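Duplicate of #3305? Posting structure anyway:
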């Protein structure tokens, strides 16, 4: 696989380079160290098949521009994108294959399915989402928490996000609460609590290490190669794996 890794010198970038199993044809990192270029414009003509980006959401315009220029697939593993950055990604998917997910874990993809099933099974239940991450994470709620909310919204179209609680804020019928904790070196914990007056169902996923995300990104990259232009996610990958 002829891959360019963006964010190559970050924690995830190093794991991606190892998971690739062969040297990437190009590396981009803001520090320009370990043989990485600072910008895509500095890369030689490496003819990539795919770009895997785990840098920062603000790099999206440069990542997308390079992918379109090279007419190659791209896996976006960053989170916290602005609306403008998301629109760039969606527009690019009309021309090239784009894999865009708030979490690259297959386990989280299964959790999303289970969350939708639980919400459908208990249509009157209160649903709360809790996400816990290390104290260095910038965005809150996590992209994964938003993914879980969207999974629930598939079966509860009137659902609305309610991020955090403070002061007088009585719970409304349609809200899905999302709470965020930032502490220590927690890789990632996500819980969905489905509560009726008589019982509570709790679904939980815990990431043991970041290698899980690198493995998921590699699965996404292999899945994307040869696909037509379009926007793909972990649900699409899961669906194909079941065929």
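Output from current build:
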């Amino acid at each position: 696989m002829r891959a360019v890794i963006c964010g190559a010198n970050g924690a995830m970038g190093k794991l991606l380079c190892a998971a690739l199993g062969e040297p990437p044809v190009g590396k981009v990192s803001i520090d320009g160290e370990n043989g990485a270029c600072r910008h895509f414009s500095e890369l030689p003509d490496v003819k990539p098949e795919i770009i895997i980006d785990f840098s920062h959401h603000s790099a999206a315009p440069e990542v997308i521009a390079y992918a379109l220029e090279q007419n190659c697939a791209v896996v976006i593993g960053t989170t916290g994108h602005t609306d403008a950055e998301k629109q760039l990604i969606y527009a690019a998917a009309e021309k090239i294959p784009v894999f865009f997910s708030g979490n690259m874990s297959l386990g989280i993809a299964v959790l999303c399915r289970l969350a939708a099933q639980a919400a459908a099974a208990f249509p009157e239940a209160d649903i709360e989402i809790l996400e816990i991450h290390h104290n260095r994470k910038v965005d809150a709620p996590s992209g994964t928490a938003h993914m879980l909310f969207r999974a629930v919204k598939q079966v509860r179209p009137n659902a609305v996000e309610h991020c955090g609680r403070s002061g007088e804020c009585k719970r409304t019928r349609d809200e899905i609460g999302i709470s965020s904790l930032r502490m220590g070196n927690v890789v990632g914990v996500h819980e969905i609590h489905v509560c009726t007056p008589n019982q509570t169902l709790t679904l939980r996923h815990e990431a043991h290490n970041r290698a899980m995300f690198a493995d998921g990104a590699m699965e996404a990259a292999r899945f994307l190669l040869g696909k037509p232009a379009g926007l793909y996610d972990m649900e699409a990958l899961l669906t194909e794996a079941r065929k």
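Confirmed duplicate; merging threads. The chain has a mean pLDDT of 94. The CA atoms of residues 161 and 176 lie 5 Å apart.
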